[in-house]
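Summary for the funding panel

The consortium committed to producing paired sequence-structure records for every protein in the target list. Below we show the first two records in order, beginning with the earlier of the two.
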Amino acid sequence: MGSAPETVSALFLRSDGKVLLGLRASWKRAWADHWDAIGGRVEAGEGLDEALLRECGEEVGLVPTSYRLMLSAPEYFPERNGAALHHIYVVSAWDGGEAENLGDEHSEIAWFSLDEMAALPNLTVAELIAVVRAYRAAP
C-alpha cells in the first residue's frame, strides 16, 4: 500500500435523532479534548467494514448491524494531524445494548442532538453534522 493511513468513524444515530460522540482523551496527538465520532485506524489487511465493527466494539461495546458509508475524505488539516483518509459511516442499528466508554481513547461519551453538536465549541469537524443530515435526507 504505502499510502496514507485510513480511519473509520461511526456516527451512531438513535431513533430519537441523537448521535453518539466520544470526547477524545487529552493525550491524543490529533484533536485532543474534542468531541468526535467513534472509530480509529484501519489495520493492515483489514477491510473498512471489518475495521468499523472492531473499533466500535473496542471503544463503546456496540456492534453495528445496519450502517452506510456516507463520506470518504482526506484529512482536513494534514499539516497538523498528518495525511490520512477518513471514512465516516452512519450506524442506524446495532447490537450490544447501551454504549459504554471502554478503553482510554475517550474521557467520556455522550448522546447529542444535531443542534447540541452544532453548539459544541470543541467538535472536531462540522462535516459530522452534515453527514447525519445527508443520511436523513437520503431515500
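The next record, for a separate protein in the list, is shown here:
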Amino acid sequence: MAKQRPIDVMTAEDALKLHQSDEAYTVVIKDSEGSPRNLVDIANDTYLVSFLDDLKRVYLAYQFNVVEGKLFLAFATYHEHDAETGKEIEKSVYAFKPDGSLYIEKRDYITSEVATANNSIDVSGNWESLPKFGCYESITKENR
C-alpha cells in the first residue's frame, strides 16, 4: 500500500536544475501546519496541479498546457469520495479549449451512469503567465 509521501525528496537546487533543463519534477506545497495541500507536476509543457484533502486524496486537479508562451487551463477534474469507505464515487471532468468550447463529463461510479454536455464559455480566466520556479500561487488557486 502506498504511504502517500514523496519517494525521493530533492533539494530546491536540484529541482531548479531540472526546471532550467526542462526536465520533469514534482513540487509538494504544504499548508501552514506542514501538511501537503498541493502537488504540482511539471513535464513537457504541462503543469498538473493536484489539490489534496485532509486524507491526502486528490479531490481536484487542474491541467494547464503551455499555449503560445502562456499557461491555459485545459482540464479540471473533481473527485468525490464516500465519507465512510473513502472510495471515489463520482468524477466530473471539464475540458476547455482556447476558443471557449467546453466539454463536461460526469461519471457516477455507484450507478455507472455517465452524463455529458457541450457548451461555450468565457475562458479568459483560464490563462495564466508561466510561473517562475518556486512561484506557483497563480496555478494553485482553487476557485477559478
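Regarding this second record: The mean pLDDT is 90. The first strand starts at residue 25 and ends at 30.
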